[in-house]
Design a protein that fits this description.
The chain has 134 residues and is of the alpha+beta class. Helix content is 21%, strand content 21%. The protein has a three-stranded antiparallel sheet with strand order 1-2-3, with no helix packed on it. The chain is globular, with a radius of gyration of 19 Å.
Amino acid sequence: MTHRARTRPAPHGDHPEPPPNQGRLSPLFAELCGRQSSPVVPVVPVVHEGLRTRTLCFGTLGAVQTTMRKSDPYALQLPYTRAMMAFQLFQPRPAHILIVGLGGGSLSKYCHRRFPEALVTTVEIDERVIALRD
């Protein structure tokens, strides 16, 4: 017996409805679907210099994007960045690596050092993040 998931047609043409009660996700979902949403205050990337670390945050509340230890700038400090490199278990010598989003550059730096023969391409849409790279 074959089971098929029931889907309801998306209102407004091909655009699905945003998930209910998703807070910040709703405006993003609307933008991705090409709909108008309520005005969203742009989130500004900010670099915080500490004694031993440099941290890239988004917004004044400090949603941490990445952290770099100044004594070891190539190390991956945050657990999610280490988890993203788990692909090495399945592809220990990649020829090409695509990183979507520069952030603080942790993944790009790590990949350039760890895989010197690989072509590492990093794509970033926000020019404010690119401007912070130096």
